[in-house]
Amino acid sequence: MGRAAAERAGADSRRNGGSQGHLSLPVPLLDRLDRELGEGAGLVAIFDYDGTLTPLVSTPEAAVLAPSVRATLARLARSERVRLAILSGRGLSDLKARVALNDVVYGGCHGLEIAGRDLRFRHPRARAADIAATRRELADALPAVPGARLEYKGLAVTLHYRGVRPERWSRVQEIASSVLRRRRTVTVIQGHRIFDFMPRVGWNKGQAARWMVRRMASTLPRGRVVVLYAGDDNTDETAFAALRHRALTIRVGATPTAAQYSVQGVRDVQALLRRMASALAA
């Protein structure tokens, strides 16, 4: 599909609220996908969940995958030429329940746990006991910060502070730093108004994405494989860097990034999913 078709796709995205008055889906990205998929290439695609497949919301429970997005993901996952994965900071069981699709590889807790399509991984040095102790310390400190809440995920515990007044954010930082100093076996990853406490095992989305890409690509028919990774958070920057010479990388949102391309929002990602599904069906 050429530039004129890409511009029409951009117009569709604008009508659906995906951009702010100009073409948001990069034409070079669309042209590359159309060409490669049109010539029969396989596709390995990895997406973050919150802020990429679903809008960012005030509480984790409210991030519900739209039925139309699930339908497009299902259409992609059913293709023999596609290996689809969702890689998130969410717990593995929570992520699987929210997406609720077979033939998808799920990576929870930033890839500390991976399951799907006969793949299974749990980082051998990740100890749930360390996270349980961290959870208890955080819970003891939270009454000092109204609006903060904890989300326990087995191999990680997340301190959410979207509901905290801005003048109290420094107190949240102090609590996180204090717990981290006492817990030498735990590290923290900072995201959108969250602190993710995880086992200190030298693992991140970048390493998890490489692991997933190698194994998913090996199950595709022999031939050319296009790899795509899309995410909206600073935690996704490790994946953009790790896949720099291997994948088409996309940052969601207007933020400086190591990704090759940027799109404005979730609706642009949805338009991209539809575009890929159509290209594979052509």
Characterise the protein shown here.
There is one protein chain. This protein has 282 residues and is α/β, with parallel strands linked by helices. It has helices at residues 3-15, 27-38, 67-78, 92-99, 128-141, 169-182, 205-218, 237-242, 266-281, and strands at residues 42-47, 82-87, 104-108, 113-116, 119-122, 149-152, 157-160, 186-191, 194-199, 225-231, 248-252, 261-263. The protein folds into 2 domains: 27-55 and 62-123 and 205-281, HAD superfamily/HAD-like (Rossmann fold), CATH 3.40.50.1000; 128-199, 2-Layer Sandwich (Hypothetical Protein, Haloacid Dehalogenase-like Hydrolase, Chain: A, domain 2). Strand 2 (82-87), helix 4 (92-99) and strand 3 form a beta-alpha-beta unit. The radius of gyration is 19 Å and the shape is globular.
Separation, N- and C-terminal Cα atoms: 11 Å
Name the beta content range. Answer: 15-25%
The oligomeric status of these chains comes to single chain
In helices, the fraction of residues equals 25-40%
Question: Order of strands across the widest beta sheet?
Answer: 5-4-3-2-1-10-11-12
**Which of globular, elongated, flat, extended, rod-shaped describes the shape?**
globular
By CATH's scheme, which homologous superfamily of the largest domain applies?
HAD superfamily/HAD-like
Name of the CATH class of the largest domain? Alpha Beta
The structure class reads: alpha/beta
CATH architecture of the largest domain: 3-Layer(aba) Sandwich
Helical region count?
9
